[in-house]
Amino acid sequence: MKRARTFSQRVGKGLANAGRASVRASRVTAIGTRRAGSATARGAQRVGLATRRLTHAGGAGRTGLGRLIELSIGNSAADALVTVAMASTVFFGVPVGEARGPVALYLVITMIPFALVAPFVGPILDKLRSGRRYVMAGTLFGRGLLCFAMAAAVGPGDLVTLFAGALGVLVLSKAFNVSRAAIMPNVLPAGISLVSANARVALFSLVTAGIAVPISAGLTAWLGSAVMLRVAMVAFLLVGVFAVRLPRHVDSPELEDEEQEGRPPRWRTLLNVGPAVAEALLANVAVRLFSGFLLFFLLFLVQDQSVPWMADKNTFFDVPKTIGLLALAAGLGGLVGAAVANWTRDRSPQLTVLFTLGLVGVTAIVSAALFGIWTAVAVSLVAAFSQELGKLALDAIVQREIGEEVRSSTFGVVEAMLQLAWVFGGLVGLLFSLVDPAAGFITFAALTTLWLAWLLIRRRTRVGRNTAKAREHAAANATTVVDHPLPGDPPGKVDRTKPLTNPHG
Q1: Most buried residue among 8, 197, 205, 241 by CB atoms closer than 10 A?
Q2: Tens digit of pLDDT per residue, the chain (505 long)?
């Protein structure tokens, strides 16, 4: 009995000690969790304050540019969530041999509405100049609702709903970009140029996307595409609320109705955007053609393992590593392009867009001659760099050359043309991925060279014509016709082309 009592006492003490140890462990865990949460909150607060200082630098906080940049950051993060979720569902979720058909269908479906809707988006936004905050918020709320519909379609595999939802998200995203670009002059600080302001927005958006994409990929692999689309829905709705809270001066005052003044309303098309804007737009169209071509061309070549560096099965760069390396190069190229645009400021954006086109042509020629893993990396970097730098220069030209009353219409034309060019380039890339890689690069190198030569000849003709008109105008203003002698004229002669100067000095 005594031994049993002693044993039971020992067991009781052991249980009591275990209970106290468990309590202490729970307390330590709770304290550690609380400290980790506090440290995370402090880190997030510091990151937020640092971001706020960067976005509001140079007077951007006073004019509203800082808040517009923060809105673009939220929009970029939400777009990244949708892109990753849809990529795992629509594109990479099917075998390579079966992917070309759905991707080509998606590109065609994307092209048709832009061709039909583009002439109407810009004028509608121009009519809503006094409510651009609410237009931007509406594009965000609309994308949130579309994400909810796509999340419901993931489970049953409803491709029609997924394609239609992705198309709607793309159209609303372009409408958001058009509205944001149109209001940029309204929030421009005195010490920042248009190119620098556009580059600042692009830099923060690209960095945000670069951070959000790998996080979204990991969460999508863990939680699934449907959950991530619902997360994107919440993100879009929150960012939409932030858009409504933008400063009021981002909206433009109502202008007098042109129809009341006897003038028809001006609708911007490619034929009447002006020579400077048309030249920059055509150069960017060629760059977008090459960008869309390169994306789908290289992606399917790599997935088909039809590239030279995959001939050896023991190569280090397999399909996932190659795609990751090319994506990293493209992201880095976009960042460098935005940084260079910020550095160039307003130094001749017309020449900048021509330079990007020439750079793309040279890269295509080099890629055709020396196609390999590092050539593919270089061409991905250069294509993204040229696309970003050329687009930022084009935006600055439009913001400088086009009046407020039709600026959204012009940006609508620009976005539609660039999107259609990218889609057409993607379709060409799908076709050329079935043939020899060198043939694709040679074709685009020749096309880009001819395109650049045509633009240079056109620019030289236009500049020469403008110079001649300026000289004629200066000559007309520098002389006058007189019918009486002036001081200094020889006796008996009348000088009828005397310069307009003071004869007495």
Answers
A1: 197
A2: 555 556 566 656 665 666 666 666 666 666 765 665 566 556 656 666 777 777 877 777 888 888 999 999 999 999 999 988 887 665 444 445 556 677 777 677 667 666 666 666 667 777 777 778 888 999 999 999 999 999 998 888 777 888 788 888 888 888 888 888 888 888 888 878 888 888 889 999 989 998 998 899 888 888 888 999 999 999 999 999 999 988 887 776 655 444 444 444 444 455 567 788 888 999 999 999 999 898 888 888 887 777 777 766 666 777 778 888 888 899 899 999 988 888 876 678 888 999 999 999 898 888 888 888 888 899 999 999 999 999 999 988 988 888 777 787 788 778 888 888 888 898 888 888 887 777 888 888 888 889 999 999 988 888 888 788 888 878 777 654 445 554 555 555 444 444 444 444 4
What is the CB neighbour count within 10 angstroms for residue 353?
A: 27
Tell me the residue length of the chain: 505
Closest to 357 (Cα-Cα) out of 332, 327, 337, 387: 387
| Cα–Cα distance, 86 to 213 (Å, whole number) | 12
Q: Give long-range contacts, CB 8 A cutoff, 24+ apart: 161-169.
A: 162/86, 162/89, 162/90, 163/90, 163/105, 163/106, 163/109, 166/82, 166/86, 166/90, 166/106, 167/109, 167/110, 167/113, 168/142, 168/143, 169/79, 169/82, 169/143
Phi/psi-derived region of residue 224, left when phi > 0, alpha when psi is between -120 and 50, beta in every other case: left
Q: Are residues 457 and 468 in contact, defined by beta-carbon separation less than 8 angstroms?
A: no
Q: Which 3 state secondary structure label does DSSP give 272?
A: coil
Segment holding 479, helix H or strand E: strand 479-480
Instruction: Retrieve residue 337's tokens.
Output: 């392009």
Q: Alpha helices of 155-193 — where are they, by DSSP H? A: 159-183
Return the exposure string of 45-56: e unless at least 16 CB atoms fall within 10 Å of the residue's CB, then b.
Answer: eeeeeebeeebb
Of the candidates 205, 212, 239, the residue with the CA atom closest to the CA atom of residue 392: 205
3-state DSSP assignment of residue 56: coil
Kindly give, in sequence order, each residue whose CB lies less than 8 Å from that of residue 274, ignoring residues fewer than 6 positions away: 401, 402
Cα separation, 424 vs 110, whole angstroms: 10
Which SS3 state, helix, strand or coil, does residue 499 take?
strand
Q: Residue 144 and residue 173: Cα distance in Å, rounded?
A: 11
CA distance 60 to 76: 19
What's the CA gap between 49 and 38, in Å, rounded? 16
Q: How many CA atoms lie within 13 A of 336 on its CB side?
A: 14
Give the span between the Cα atoms of 196 and 285, in whole angstroms: 22
With beta carbons less than 8 A apart as the criterion, state whether 503 and 488 touch.
yes
Query: DSSP string of 135-147?
Result: HHHHHHHHHHHHH
Q: Is the pTM of this model over 0.85?
A: no
